[in-house]
Amino acid sequence: MSVIKLLSDIYSVGVVDWNVRNFHGHTYTTKRGSSYNAYLIIDEKVALIDTVYGPFSAELIENIQQVVPLNKIDYIVANHVETDHSGALPEIMKLAKGAKIFGTGKCREGLQRYYYGNWDFQVVKSGDTLKLGKRSLTFLEAPMIHWPDSMFTYCPEEALLMPNDAFGQHLASNERFADEVDQCVLWDEAAKYYGNILWPLGQVILRKIEEVKKSNLSIKMIAPSHGVIWRQNPMQIVDKYASWAKNETLPKVVLAYETMWGATEKMARKIVEGIEKEGMSVKLFDITASDRTEVIKEMLDAKGFIFGSSTHDNGMLTTIAGFLDFIKGLKPKNRSAAVFGSYGWAGGAVRQIEGIIKETGLDLTQEGLQVKYMPDKNDLAACIEFGRSFAAKLK
Ligand code: FEO
Q: Does domain 253-394 have CATH number 3.30.420.40?
Protein backbone atom coordinates (compact mmCIF):
# COMPACT_ATOMS: atom_id res chain seq x y z
CA MET A 1 0.00 0.00 0.00
CA SER A 2 1.30 3.44 -0.85
CA VAL A 3 1.78 5.96 1.91
CA ILE A 4 -1.30 8.20 2.09
CA LYS A 5 -1.48 11.59 3.72
CA LEU A 6 -4.62 11.55 5.88
CA LEU A 7 -4.26 15.01 7.34
CA SER A 8 -1.45 17.54 7.54
CA ASP A 9 1.60 15.59 8.82
CA ILE A 10 -0.47 12.47 9.54
CA TYR A 11 0.12 9.48 7.28
CA SER A 12 -1.30 6.02 6.75
CA VAL A 13 1.81 3.80 6.51
CA GLY A 14 0.31 0.31 6.90
CA VAL A 15 0.06 -2.50 4.36
CA VAL A 16 -2.59 -4.29 2.31
CA ASP A 17 -2.68 -8.08 2.56
CA TRP A 18 -4.30 -8.87 -0.78
CA ASN A 19 -3.91 -12.63 -0.48
CA VAL A 20 -4.96 -13.54 3.04
CA ARG A 21 -7.94 -15.90 2.76
CA ASN A 22 -8.12 -17.23 6.32
CA PHE A 23 -7.86 -15.12 9.44
CA HIS A 24 -7.60 -16.06 13.12
CA GLY A 25 -6.40 -19.51 12.12
CA HIS A 26 -9.24 -20.83 10.00
CA THR A 27 -12.10 -19.23 11.91
CA TYR A 28 -12.75 -16.38 9.45
CA THR A 29 -12.59 -16.49 5.65
CA THR A 30 -11.29 -13.23 4.21
CA LYS A 31 -12.24 -13.57 0.57
CA ARG A 32 -11.54 -9.88 -0.05
CA GLY A 33 -8.19 -9.89 1.80
CA SER A 34 -7.42 -7.40 4.55
CA SER A 35 -5.09 -4.61 5.57
CA TYR A 36 -3.02 -3.91 8.65
CA ASN A 37 -3.17 -0.17 9.17
CA ALA A 38 -0.55 1.89 10.99
CA TYR A 39 -0.43 5.66 11.33
CA LEU A 40 2.48 8.07 11.56
CA ILE A 41 2.21 11.54 13.12
CA ILE A 42 4.99 14.03 12.48
CA ASP A 43 5.22 16.80 15.05
CA GLU A 44 7.95 18.00 17.41
CA LYS A 45 7.83 14.37 18.45
CA VAL A 46 7.23 11.61 15.91
CA ALA A 47 4.69 8.95 16.85
CA LEU A 48 3.85 5.65 15.16
CA ILE A 49 0.43 4.28 16.04
CA ASP A 50 0.49 0.47 15.80
CA THR A 51 2.54 -1.68 13.45
CA VAL A 52 1.55 -4.51 11.08
CA TYR A 53 1.62 -8.30 10.82
CA GLY A 54 5.22 -9.57 11.05
CA PRO A 55 5.69 -10.85 7.47
CA PHE A 56 5.01 -7.28 6.27
CA SER A 57 7.66 -5.63 8.49
CA ALA A 58 9.90 -4.67 5.58
CA GLU A 59 7.03 -2.97 3.74
CA LEU A 60 6.06 -1.01 6.84
CA ILE A 61 9.67 0.10 7.31
CA GLU A 62 9.88 1.16 3.67
CA ASN A 63 6.65 3.14 4.03
CA ILE A 64 7.82 4.92 7.17
CA GLN A 65 11.15 5.74 5.52
CA GLN A 66 9.30 7.56 2.74
CA VAL A 67 8.21 10.05 5.42
CA VAL A 68 10.87 10.00 8.12
CA PRO A 69 13.97 7.94 9.04
CA LEU A 70 13.13 5.22 11.57
CA ASN A 71 15.58 6.62 14.11
CA LYS A 72 13.46 9.76 14.31
CA ILE A 73 10.50 7.88 15.82
CA ASP A 74 10.13 8.98 19.44
CA TYR A 75 6.98 7.15 20.44
CA ILE A 76 5.20 3.97 19.39
CA VAL A 77 1.65 3.44 20.55
CA ALA A 78 0.68 -0.23 20.82
CA ASN A 79 -3.11 -0.18 20.88
CA HIS A 80 -3.32 -3.97 20.79
CA VAL A 81 -1.02 -6.95 21.35
CA GLU A 82 -2.50 -9.27 18.70
CA THR A 83 0.19 -10.15 16.23
CA ASP A 84 -1.54 -8.64 13.18
CA HIS A 85 -0.77 -5.24 14.79
CA SER A 86 2.34 -5.90 16.84
CA GLY A 87 4.16 -8.43 14.65
CA ALA A 88 6.48 -5.84 13.08
CA LEU A 89 7.42 -4.31 16.43
CA PRO A 90 10.66 -6.29 16.92
CA GLU A 91 11.97 -5.15 13.51
CA ILE A 92 10.84 -1.55 14.09
CA MET A 93 12.53 -1.48 17.50
CA LYS A 94 15.85 -2.54 15.92
CA LEU A 95 15.78 0.67 13.88
CA ALA A 96 13.88 3.03 16.18
CA LYS A 97 16.25 2.32 19.04
CA GLY A 98 15.33 5.27 21.23
CA ALA A 99 11.58 4.90 20.85
CA LYS A 100 9.37 4.53 23.89
CA ILE A 101 6.30 2.28 23.65
CA PHE A 102 2.95 3.24 25.16
CA GLY A 103 0.16 0.80 25.92
CA THR A 104 -1.99 -0.66 28.68
CA GLY A 105 -0.61 -2.83 31.47
CA LYS A 106 -2.05 -5.90 29.74
CA CYS A 107 -0.37 -4.78 26.54
CA ARG A 108 3.03 -4.65 28.27
CA GLU A 109 2.44 -8.15 29.64
CA GLY A 110 1.30 -9.46 26.24
CA LEU A 111 4.16 -7.92 24.26
CA GLN A 112 6.63 -9.35 26.76
CA ARG A 113 5.15 -12.84 26.34
CA TYR A 114 5.15 -12.57 22.55
CA TYR A 115 8.53 -10.97 21.86
CA TYR A 116 10.63 -10.97 25.06
CA GLY A 117 12.07 -7.57 24.08
CA ASN A 118 13.93 -5.33 26.49
CA TRP A 119 11.99 -2.23 25.46
CA ASP A 120 11.23 1.08 27.17
CA PHE A 121 7.51 0.75 27.87
CA GLN A 122 5.20 3.20 29.60
CA VAL A 123 1.89 1.92 30.89
CA VAL A 124 -1.02 4.30 30.19
CA LYS A 125 -4.57 4.48 31.47
CA SER A 126 -7.77 6.06 30.16
CA GLY A 127 -7.44 9.85 30.09
CA ASP A 128 -3.62 9.89 30.02
CA THR A 129 -2.22 12.19 27.36
CA LEU A 130 1.01 12.36 25.44
CA LYS A 131 2.14 15.73 24.08
CA LEU A 132 3.66 15.56 20.60
CA GLY A 133 4.00 19.32 19.95
CA LYS A 134 1.05 21.06 18.27
CA ARG A 135 -0.85 17.83 18.72
CA SER A 136 -1.35 15.36 21.51
CA LEU A 137 -2.65 11.85 21.98
CA THR A 138 -5.22 10.78 24.55
CA PHE A 139 -5.58 7.14 25.48
CA LEU A 140 -8.82 5.31 26.16
CA GLU A 141 -8.64 1.78 27.48
CA ALA A 142 -11.01 -0.55 25.60
CA PRO A 143 -10.62 -3.95 27.24
CA MET A 144 -12.12 -6.82 25.22
CA ILE A 145 -12.46 -4.70 22.06
CA HIS A 146 -10.91 -6.95 21.04
CA TRP A 147 -8.57 -8.38 23.72
CA PRO A 148 -8.01 -7.41 27.38
CA ASP A 149 -5.06 -5.22 26.36
CA SER A 150 -6.91 -3.19 23.71
CA MET A 151 -7.14 0.58 23.76
CA PHE A 152 -8.15 3.46 21.48
CA THR A 153 -5.89 6.43 20.74
CA TYR A 154 -7.44 9.84 20.09
CA CYS A 155 -5.83 12.98 18.70
CA PRO A 156 -8.06 15.85 19.91
CA GLU A 157 -6.46 18.56 17.76
CA GLU A 158 -7.43 16.61 14.62
CA ALA A 159 -10.60 14.98 16.03
CA LEU A 160 -9.04 11.70 14.88
CA LEU A 161 -9.92 8.42 16.59
CA MET A 162 -7.65 5.42 16.05
CA PRO A 163 -9.62 2.57 17.68
CA ASN A 164 -7.53 -0.33 16.37
CA ASP A 165 -9.79 -3.36 15.73
CA ALA A 166 -13.09 -1.56 16.37
CA PHE A 167 -14.96 -0.30 13.28
CA GLY A 168 -12.68 -2.23 10.89
CA GLN A 169 -13.35 -4.51 7.94
CA HIS A 170 -11.31 -7.26 6.32
CA LEU A 171 -11.13 -5.54 2.97
CA ALA A 172 -8.06 -5.16 0.77
CA SER A 173 -8.25 -2.10 -1.46
CA ASN A 174 -6.00 0.59 -2.81
CA GLU A 175 -8.68 3.09 -1.80
CA ARG A 176 -8.11 4.19 1.77
CA PHE A 177 -11.45 5.80 2.62
CA ALA A 178 -14.90 4.31 3.20
CA ASP A 179 -16.53 6.81 0.83
CA GLU A 180 -14.29 5.63 -2.03
CA VAL A 181 -15.29 1.95 -2.08
CA ASP A 182 -18.43 0.14 -3.19
CA GLN A 183 -20.91 0.73 -0.35
CA CYS A 184 -22.48 -2.74 -0.58
CA VAL A 185 -19.05 -4.33 -0.24
CA LEU A 186 -18.13 -1.99 2.60
CA TRP A 187 -21.20 -2.76 4.72
CA ASP A 188 -21.06 -6.45 3.84
CA GLU A 189 -17.51 -6.62 5.18
CA ALA A 190 -18.24 -4.43 8.22
CA ALA A 191 -21.14 -6.72 9.19
CA LYS A 192 -19.07 -9.84 8.59
CA TYR A 193 -16.29 -8.44 10.79
CA TYR A 194 -18.67 -7.52 13.61
CA GLY A 195 -20.59 -10.80 13.41
CA ASN A 196 -17.59 -13.10 13.33
CA ILE A 197 -15.30 -11.24 15.73
CA LEU A 198 -17.18 -8.79 17.92
CA TRP A 199 -20.66 -10.29 18.31
CA PRO A 200 -19.95 -11.81 21.76
CA LEU A 201 -18.63 -8.44 23.01
CA GLY A 202 -21.84 -6.46 22.43
CA GLN A 203 -22.35 -5.28 26.01
CA VAL A 204 -18.73 -4.09 26.30
CA ILE A 205 -19.07 -2.30 22.96
CA LEU A 206 -22.31 -0.59 23.99
CA ARG A 207 -20.77 0.67 27.23
CA LYS A 208 -17.74 2.02 25.35
CA ILE A 209 -19.92 3.77 22.77
CA GLU A 210 -21.97 5.38 25.57
CA GLU A 211 -18.76 6.46 27.31
CA VAL A 212 -17.40 8.04 24.13
CA LYS A 213 -20.72 9.77 23.36
CA LYS A 214 -21.03 11.11 26.94
CA SER A 215 -17.51 12.54 26.80
CA ASN A 216 -18.59 14.64 23.78
CA LEU A 217 -15.41 13.87 21.88
CA SER A 218 -15.38 15.57 18.54
CA ILE A 219 -14.77 12.82 15.96
CA LYS A 220 -14.15 13.83 12.36
CA MET A 221 -12.27 10.74 11.29
CA ILE A 222 -12.14 7.13 12.49
CA ALA A 223 -9.03 5.29 11.36
CA PRO A 224 -9.27 1.59 12.31
CA SER A 225 -6.52 -0.99 12.04
CA HIS A 226 -8.21 -3.03 9.27
CA GLY A 227 -9.81 -1.85 6.05
CA VAL A 228 -10.82 1.63 5.06
CA ILE A 229 -10.99 4.86 7.06
CA TRP A 230 -14.27 6.59 7.93
CA ARG A 231 -14.02 10.31 7.09
CA GLN A 232 -17.53 11.23 5.82
CA ASN A 233 -20.02 10.98 8.66
CA PRO A 234 -17.73 8.70 10.70
CA MET A 235 -20.43 8.21 13.35
CA GLN A 236 -22.40 6.08 10.87
CA ILE A 237 -20.26 3.06 11.76
CA VAL A 238 -20.52 3.85 15.49
CA ASP A 239 -24.32 3.94 15.21
CA LYS A 240 -24.30 0.68 13.26
CA TYR A 241 -22.19 -0.96 15.99
CA ALA A 242 -24.69 0.27 18.59
CA SER A 243 -27.52 -1.32 16.61
CA TRP A 244 -25.68 -4.65 16.31
CA ALA A 245 -24.66 -4.55 19.96
CA LYS A 246 -28.29 -3.96 21.00
CA ASN A 247 -29.19 -7.08 18.99
CA GLU A 248 -31.56 -5.18 16.73
CA THR A 249 -32.84 -7.61 14.11
CA LEU A 250 -34.98 -7.86 10.99
CA PRO A 251 -37.93 -10.20 10.38
CA LYS A 252 -35.66 -12.77 8.82
CA VAL A 253 -34.83 -16.43 9.40
CA VAL A 254 -31.55 -18.22 8.74
CA LEU A 255 -31.89 -21.97 8.35
CA ALA A 256 -28.67 -24.02 8.48
CA TYR A 257 -28.67 -27.79 8.13
CA GLU A 258 -26.60 -30.85 7.36
CA THR A 259 -28.08 -33.89 5.68
CA MET A 260 -26.80 -37.45 5.26
CA TRP A 261 -29.04 -39.04 2.58
CA GLY A 262 -31.26 -36.08 1.68
CA ALA A 263 -34.22 -36.50 4.09
CA THR A 264 -33.21 -33.58 6.30
CA GLU A 265 -32.66 -31.51 3.18
CA LYS A 266 -36.19 -32.27 1.95
CA MET A 267 -37.50 -31.17 5.33
CA ALA A 268 -35.42 -27.97 5.17
CA ARG A 269 -36.84 -26.96 1.80
CA LYS A 270 -40.43 -27.44 2.99
CA ILE A 271 -39.75 -25.49 6.19
CA VAL A 272 -38.55 -22.63 3.98
CA GLU A 273 -41.88 -22.81 2.11
CA GLY A 274 -43.69 -22.44 5.41
CA ILE A 275 -41.63 -19.39 6.38
CA GLU A 276 -42.36 -17.86 2.97
CA LYS A 277 -46.10 -18.36 3.54
CA GLU A 278 -45.80 -15.92 6.44
CA GLY A 279 -44.13 -13.41 4.11
CA MET A 280 -40.87 -13.55 6.01
CA SER A 281 -37.38 -13.33 4.57
CA VAL A 282 -35.42 -16.60 4.83
CA LYS A 283 -31.94 -17.81 3.88
CA LEU A 284 -31.19 -21.52 3.56
CA PHE A 285 -27.67 -22.94 3.96
CA ASP A 286 -26.41 -26.48 3.61
CA ILE A 287 -23.64 -25.91 6.11
CA THR A 288 -21.32 -28.42 4.41
CA ALA A 289 -21.44 -26.38 1.20
CA SER A 290 -21.42 -22.91 2.74
CA ASP A 291 -18.82 -20.43 3.93
CA ARG A 292 -19.41 -20.26 7.69
CA THR A 293 -18.19 -16.65 7.87
CA GLU A 294 -20.89 -15.63 5.37
CA VAL A 295 -23.61 -17.60 7.18
CA ILE A 296 -22.79 -15.83 10.44
CA LYS A 297 -22.97 -12.46 8.70
CA GLU A 298 -26.48 -13.40 7.55
CA MET A 299 -27.39 -14.42 11.11
CA LEU A 300 -26.30 -11.07 12.56
CA ASP A 301 -29.54 -9.29 11.62
CA ALA A 302 -31.85 -12.34 11.63
CA LYS A 303 -34.54 -12.66 14.30
CA GLY A 304 -34.80 -16.43 14.03
CA PHE A 305 -32.47 -19.38 13.51
CA ILE A 306 -33.50 -22.91 12.53
CA PHE A 307 -30.98 -25.73 12.68
CA GLY A 308 -31.34 -29.19 11.19
CA SER A 309 -29.34 -32.40 11.19
CA SER A 310 -29.77 -36.04 10.38
CA THR A 311 -28.96 -38.31 13.29
CA HIS A 312 -25.68 -40.20 13.19
CA ASP A 313 -24.40 -42.28 16.12
CA ASN A 314 -27.23 -40.89 18.28
CA GLY A 315 -26.17 -37.30 17.69
CA MET A 316 -25.87 -34.61 15.07
CA LEU A 317 -23.57 -34.69 12.06
CA THR A 318 -20.06 -33.31 12.46
CA THR A 319 -20.05 -30.13 10.31
CA ILE A 320 -23.18 -28.72 11.93
CA ALA A 321 -21.67 -29.69 15.31
CA GLY A 322 -18.64 -27.47 14.62
CA PHE A 323 -20.88 -24.70 13.35
CA LEU A 324 -23.08 -24.78 16.47
CA ASP A 325 -20.01 -24.75 18.69
CA PHE A 326 -18.92 -21.53 16.94
CA ILE A 327 -22.42 -20.04 17.37
CA LYS A 328 -22.32 -20.89 21.08
CA GLY A 329 -19.13 -18.83 21.37
CA LEU A 330 -20.80 -15.84 19.66
CA LYS A 331 -23.44 -15.74 22.44
CA PRO A 332 -26.27 -14.36 20.27
CA LYS A 333 -29.04 -12.69 22.27
CA ASN A 334 -32.75 -11.94 21.66
CA ARG A 335 -33.17 -14.57 18.95
CA SER A 336 -35.62 -17.43 18.60
CA ALA A 337 -34.63 -20.88 17.42
CA ALA A 338 -36.08 -24.23 16.42
CA VAL A 339 -34.65 -27.62 15.42
CA PHE A 340 -35.56 -30.39 13.00
CA GLY A 341 -34.01 -33.50 11.49
CA SER A 342 -34.46 -37.01 10.18
CA TYR A 343 -33.43 -40.25 11.88
CA GLY A 344 -33.41 -43.99 11.29
CA TRP A 345 -34.16 -45.69 14.62
CA ALA A 346 -33.34 -44.03 17.96
CA GLY A 347 -32.82 -40.40 16.88
CA GLY A 348 -30.74 -38.00 18.97
CA ALA A 349 -29.64 -35.07 16.76
CA VAL A 350 -32.66 -32.88 17.50
CA ARG A 351 -32.37 -33.42 21.27
CA GLN A 352 -28.64 -32.70 21.17
CA ILE A 353 -29.05 -29.45 19.19
CA GLU A 354 -31.88 -28.33 21.47
CA GLY A 355 -29.52 -28.79 24.42
CA ILE A 356 -26.94 -26.52 22.76
CA ILE A 357 -29.61 -23.94 21.98
CA LYS A 358 -30.65 -23.80 25.62
CA GLU A 359 -27.02 -23.48 26.75
CA THR A 360 -26.48 -20.68 24.23
CA GLY A 361 -29.43 -18.73 25.63
CA LEU A 362 -31.52 -18.73 22.46
CA ASP A 363 -35.29 -18.90 22.90
CA LEU A 364 -36.49 -22.35 21.79
CA THR A 365 -39.93 -21.41 20.53
CA GLN A 366 -41.37 -24.76 19.50
CA GLU A 367 -40.89 -28.49 19.85
CA GLY A 368 -38.36 -30.02 17.47
CA LEU A 369 -39.64 -31.79 14.36
CA GLN A 370 -38.36 -35.30 13.63
CA VAL A 371 -39.04 -37.57 10.68
CA LYS A 372 -38.19 -41.27 10.45
CA TYR A 373 -36.21 -42.19 7.33
CA MET A 374 -37.76 -40.23 4.40
CA PRO A 375 -40.58 -37.70 4.87
CA ASP A 376 -43.90 -38.70 3.29
CA LYS A 377 -46.63 -36.32 2.12
CA ASN A 378 -47.94 -35.79 5.65
CA ASP A 379 -44.43 -35.22 7.04
CA LEU A 380 -43.73 -32.63 4.34
CA ALA A 381 -46.96 -30.84 5.19
CA ALA A 382 -45.85 -30.86 8.84
CA CYS A 383 -42.55 -29.27 7.78
CA ILE A 384 -44.42 -26.46 6.01
CA GLU A 385 -46.48 -25.90 9.14
CA PHE A 386 -43.32 -26.00 11.28
CA GLY A 387 -41.77 -23.18 9.23
CA ARG A 388 -45.02 -21.21 9.10
CA SER A 389 -45.62 -21.34 12.85
CA PHE A 390 -42.00 -20.44 13.62
CA ALA A 391 -42.20 -17.37 11.36
CA ALA A 392 -45.58 -16.39 12.80
CA LYS A 393 -44.14 -16.39 16.33
CA LEU A 394 -41.35 -14.03 15.23
CA LYS A 395 -43.81 -11.36 14.15
FE1 FEO B 1 -6.75 -7.15 14.28
FE2 FEO B 1 -7.49 -8.29 17.51
O3 FEO B 1 -6.46 -7.98 15.94
A: no
